[in-house]
Amino acid sequence: MSKLATSGRSARDYAVLSIGAALLTITLKFGAYLLTGSVGLLSDALESLVNLVAALVALWALTFAARPPDAEHAFGHNKAEYFSSALEGTLILVAAASIGVAAWGRLFHPQPIEQVGLALLLSLVATAVNGGVAIILLRAGRRLRSVTLRADAHHLFTDVWTSAGVVLGILLVKLTGWLVLDPIIALIVAVNIVWAGFRLLRETGLGLLDTALPNDEQQLITTILNSYEQQSIQFHAIRTRTAGTRRFVSFHVLVPGEWTVQRGHDLCEEIEIAISKALPATHVTTHLEPLEDPLSWADQELDRMS
After folding, report:
1. Residue 274 pLDDT > 70
2. What does the buried/exposed string (b/e) look like for 282-292 if buried means 16 or more CB atoms within 10 Å of the residue's CB?
3. Do residues 45 and 164 share a domain?
4. Do residues 287 and 253 lie in contact, with contact meaning Cβ atoms separated by under 8 Å?
5. Which of 132, 199, 232, 236 makes the best surface tag, with the fewest CB within 10 Å?
6. Confidence at residue 5, expressed as pLDDT on a 0 to 100 scale
7. Whether residue 198 is found in the same domain as residue 150
8. What is the mean pLDDT of the segment spanning 210-215?
């Protein structure tokens, strides 16, 4: 017996927005790099190239994840989102490595930076675009519970900090004349990007391992179940997990043995609806058992182990 509540919303429009923003910022940042020859601006432009690839993969993942359950995927396709976040985390690490290699060579052979004013203007415009889109994606990702949108947003925020660091480095070079500051800033940016990549990969791993719902959501489920216990009803074998935008909750419902099947069924339906309303996009599965039967309590040992 199960009940599924969905929000009926799609996150694909936000992925299209991210693609458009990536194309615009790539144009602006590579233009800034060509004007100056700054390895810092090159590192910034390379990260925007990664943004574009990640946004394209995100669009595919969100499109695939939105497909309804079928005979081969009875629980839906939501975990496709984790492919996107895993690839994005990997691409971030690749971008960091590329930046590090370019910056290391320039560290021992500094080069002058040209046409700083126009280049910085282009970079700042690109930064503003990324910052605005990142805020939009993060809000949408939290509202739609999309790991793909949240990953894309965090990546863009990383890009914003990267750009800010690069701009600061170029300004310091211009003010001090120390050309070595350009590759040093680029190396610092690379380290920051590595940290962001590992965080995304960690979140992806937790999702693929069917991590339980957050504590506040589990407490909400417990509160709903506790409201029924005064009616000589008990619960155990409570299991929760997440898969992309969907939550999965299952538990056993123990009722007096003299109840009719219809009465037990109606109770389970009522509880499933209550949880689904409290936590949208939740698939709730219940198993009805007689309270007096010792076999109904046989899996409590699993409760203590979990």
Report:
1. yes
2. bbbebebbebe
3. yes
4. yes
5. 232
6. 40
7. yes
8. 81
Q: Give backbone dihedrals phi and psi of 77, rounded to 5 degrees, phi first.
A: -120, 20
Q: What's the number of domains the chain is made of?
A: 2
CATH code: domain of residue 265: 3.30.70.1350
Amino acid, single-letter form, for residue 116: V
* 288 and 153 fall within a common domain: no
CATH number at residue 128: 1.20.1510.10
Q: What length does the chain have?
A: 306
Q: How far is CA 257 from each of CA 269, 287, 289, 294, rounded to the nearest angstrom?
A: 18, 14, 8, 12
Predicted TM-score (pTM) above 0.85: no
**pLDDT-based confidence at 268, cuts 50/70/90?**
very high
Shared domain for 167 and 261, answered yes or no, is no
pLDDT digits (tens, 9 = 90+) for 36-69: 777 767 777 877 787 788 788 888 888 877 777 7
CB 268 within 8 A of CB 286: yes
